[in-house]
Amino acid sequence: MATTTVTHPGAIAYRGRRSWLYEWLTTTDHKKIGAMYIFTSFLFFIAGGVMALFIRTELAAPGVQFVDPETYNQLFTIHGTTMIFLFVMPMNVGLANYIVPLQIGAADMAFPRINALSFWMIPLGGLLLFSGYAVGGAANAGWTGYVPLSAQGGAGLDLWLMSLVLLGMSSVLGAINFIATIFKLRAPGLTLLRMPLFVWNTLVTSVLLLFAIPVITAGLMMLFIDRNYGGGFFDPALGGNPVLWQHVFWFFGHPEVYILILPAFGIVTEILPVFSRKPLFGYKAFVFATASIGALGFTVWAHHMFTTGAVYLPFFSFFTFLIAVPTGIKFFNWLATLWRGQLRFSTPLLYALGFISLFLIGGLDGAFLAVVPFDFHVQDTYWVVSHLHYVLVAGAVFGIFAGLFYWFPKMTGRMLSERLGKWQFVLLFVGTNLTFFPQHLLGLRGMIRRIIDYAPNPGWVELNLLSTIGAFMIAASVVPFMWNVFTTLRGPRNAPDDPWEGNTLEWATTSPPPPYNFDSLPPIRSERPLFDLRHGLTGHGPAAAAPRLTAGDDTNRGEAAQ
Amino acid sequence: MPLVGLRQPLVREGERAHKTRSHRTARWLSLAFLGILAAIVAACSGAAANHPGFEPGYGPSGPGPGFFPLQPVSQQGQYIFDFYPVIFWIAVAVFILVEGLLIWIVLRYRRRPTDTELPNQTHGHGGLEIVWTLIPAIVVTALFAFTVDTLGKVETANTSTDNPALTIDVTGFQWQWTFEYKAQGIKLTGVGREGPTMALPVGEKVRIRLHGLDVDVIHSFYVPQFLYKKDVIPGRVNEFDVIVQQAGTYAGQCAEFCGLGHADMHFTVVAMTRADFDGWVAQQQQPEPSQEPPPSGAPSVSVTSVGIVEGFNPTELSVAADTPWSVSLTNSDPVVPHNFSIRGANADGTDWIGQPNADGGGSAVYRPPPLAAGDYSFFCSLHTNMIGTLRVGQ
What we know:
The complex is a heterodimer of chains A (about 550) and B (about 400). Chain A has about 550 residues and is mainly alpha-helical. Chain A has helices at about 10-15, 20-25, 30-60, 70-105, 110-130, 150, 155-185, 195-230, 240-275, 285-295, 315-320, 325-340, 345-370, 370-380, 380-410, 420-445, 460-490, 530-535, 555-560, and strands at about 520, 550. A two-stranded antiparallel sheet of chain A has the order 1-2. In chain A, α9 (about 240-275) packs antiparallel against α13 (about 345-370). Among the domains of chain B are: about 160-285, Immunoglobulin-like (Sandwich), CATH 2.60.40; about 300-395, Cupredoxins -  blue copper proteins (Immunoglobulin-like, Sandwich), CATH 2.60.40.420. The chains are: A mainly alpha (about 550), B alpha+beta (about 400).
């Protein structure tokens, strides 16, 4: 039987022939691919973050003093595109790539080579996007690329279009891979309603991608044809309609928000039971809420278009409000999970709690936007900027850091420093609020977004300065994280297999796992197989005397999983 | 066994000390959280107290808006403003409820060294879950009903049949506005960053029709103190009705990102009494004093405005110093108006703005003042990125 220092005989054989670099460049191992996703997307996070600092520095005071308008327009376009398509999406895919096969007791993804292909499209897509800077200016029409403005720009916009098509392709391949993996490779006993919530969220995210990406890809192609071959899809002079782009874009764009945030929901939902020593409160309600958020995500696209005068307002208002219901279920079930628990305030839990407390703000200020008349006032103002950043920074970024701290020991066999982690948390928590909360008030006072210069109206100067200070605090919070990872990776392997008393299967293998993941699996009788192993199914008795599954038993796990 | 890790004693070396520390950290963090909230509230009310002295055109001074929108000056804005507290206080209640529970949980349910037994393993509670599904569902349904009601009041253009007292046709283009009062025969195109001024009578229904140019991009007509905006979309005419209730000068700006000059696409709305408005109309209707023809034999130069992106052709002109001269502008841009202006050419050092604009496909002749020798830059005051160099020789 394996021990914590197990090495697969095959791995030794490879090592003799292949260099370290060749191994990483050609790997089809979901863990290595996951690690490469995480590393690459973190680099893009830094790039997008530096752009955000440029933007906030320019906006620290009224006037145009730091960059010129053209540079500014490129900055916020590439910042948004990078953070969404090259940071949050691939980071989520990277975490899921590493963790989902482990959580379902599989040896790898269903299509390992397609998995590698999906990954390598990411740096290529990033290269295309950033190469705009080498051909006379990157895309400058905003991440939403509204036509006809996006029909005007230079070659940077064509590169932007190609980059997004490529990144979309990567997402679709990844989504198919996850769906196949989750449906076909679950360990015996791991029924759908025993799957960890992170797996559920990855599944729903993948389904959303599968429906949303083809639509935006079609739109991107149409715009490419309009720009280069005289197509008339969006050109009113040729009988086209610029509003059509907004429909196509947001039919993708709103589900995209859930594509970005659902994995964070999944991470938080994994962490809370572990660190409160309680089961998830209302497992089925979580599954239901996740699926209905995904479904409702396709019914609200035009709430981004209330001021176009071209959509039926009450329909989209109603469904936007309705999303508050499943989201509310999640919040209350999260709180009920923690209620009367025994909370251990390690960094993953801090980030999960930070997520709940701040994502709430992003949920509430989003509900304001469902009030169509109020949206008339704050559409395209800093209220919207604040809302989307409370969702994507306080939501997705906090969830991602929660996940990184939670699974880092599993991935590397090393524990990150709790002290540095907590410093980072405090800086990020304060910085996020300082940056984005004042933007609500700017929006209420009518400051519009995407402007390089603003009038020194009452309150605007102070609020913008606060926001800029906050942005630098967020940037400062990344420094302890990088130092933490750097020093920990140089340190000894000090992480046990299951440092947090986890519930799910990834903690049943070594840290880091061997290339083939598991020597044997514990019996799966609930959504917490490892908890059952420690405490028995009742939560009080000793471990049930069930036979352990070993490698020989799981030859037909695909059928058994049903 | 791979499960060795599971069987390791959970209380490791230094765990006890670590626990005490994490308790302290937890308490400290929750206090810090409360502190931040308090600081944000204080900062906001502080900023609000510091209120008088709005920018010209930014409305009356008074108590600051704080967590509320700007004080509206239109009837439609007032409907929105009156509805805002409903959702605001519901959001505040939900915020306090959730954050309160969270802080309570953080303070009360910390893991203590005495916690050796597992806590009660509650897997759910059907009744509770139904309650916190139904209550939000009822709240949002009620909010939706209020929303539709308010929306109906705001969007009178689509529902009411009575004719407006005044119709203003607005054209937004990169990066300027044209306000046209067709019935009164007035057409105003903005000049420079300030943009044009829209005068309208107080207390009367004004219909604003928004036109985009086919060759242009999307803009949005936004007057913050109307609490209202509507997009200006090529190939489409949007319209809305507004009744301004309070005389004053209100800033407006393009709200939809439209490229290089987006931040400079301002305009001003001046609401005035009916008598003042009639006076304003009469004043605007007076023919502009026709320019004296340039003295025969005065030097003349020609320049073509090609387009917003392409700029002028040529980009360098030469004229003699201290001599009356004229410039004829040919606008080869098919739709967008342009003009010929000179930076700092007026006697008081301000920019000399050539008026009227040459409409798309049209032309205009300007007579700038005689200039002292030196290099000047000429530009289109509608599109300040269109620039060229004017060399004034001896």
